[in-house]
Specification:
Largest sheet: 11 strands, antiparallel
Structural class: mainly beta
Oligomer: single chain
Strand content: over 45%
């Protein structure tokens, strides 16, 4: 399907993270206005680009429970930059073969944030927790536990 000139024309550029983080409603509106929704085998709804009848390129997937992902897909998997909302917690960052992988930011229900790295869906290495919007706790993940080593 040919896409009219819109925010979608910028999605293959480095503007993708900026576009998603600063103005997701207009990006979502572009996707909704240019693509029909269809149901995926897992029961979720998908709107966006496709290849071989799988999500591929930019799109939005909404699960029956209201969780969603908006961003890049490859061969039906989240792959590249995107934002996902899971049980009231927002993650913005990199995905590889469907899992969080690379730099990202997780915003918890209470507004606290974690800035760091993920590998194969799990937090790894150094990161920073921002608590109450001001206190920063720098630390490292060891055996799936965050060990604080400084306060900033």
């Amino acid at each position: 399907m040919a896409v009219a000139q819109s925010n979608l024309s910028r999605l293959s550029s480095p503007l993708l993270p900026y576009c998603l983080l600063t103005n997701p409603p207009s990006l979502l509106e572009d996707i909704i206005s240019h693509y029909e929704s269809s149901q995926l085998p897992d029961g979720s709804l998908y709107q966006g680009e496709r290849q071989n009848d799988k999500p591929h390129g930019v799109g939005c997937q909404t699960l029956p429970n209201g969780n969603f992902f908006i961003g890049l897909f490859e061969n039906g998997e989240k792959h590249g930059f995107g934002q996902e909302l899971i049980d009231g917690e927002m993650f913005s960052g990199s995905f590889f073969e469907g899992k969080r992988d690379g730099p990202g930011v997780k915003v918890f229900k209470n507004g606290d944030q974690y800035h760091g790295e993920w590998k194969n869906g799990v937090e790894v290495g150094e990161g920073v927790f921002v608590v109450d919007g001001k206190e920063k706790r720098k630390g490292v993940w060891i055996d799936k536990e965050f060990k604080v080593y400084s306060y900033m």
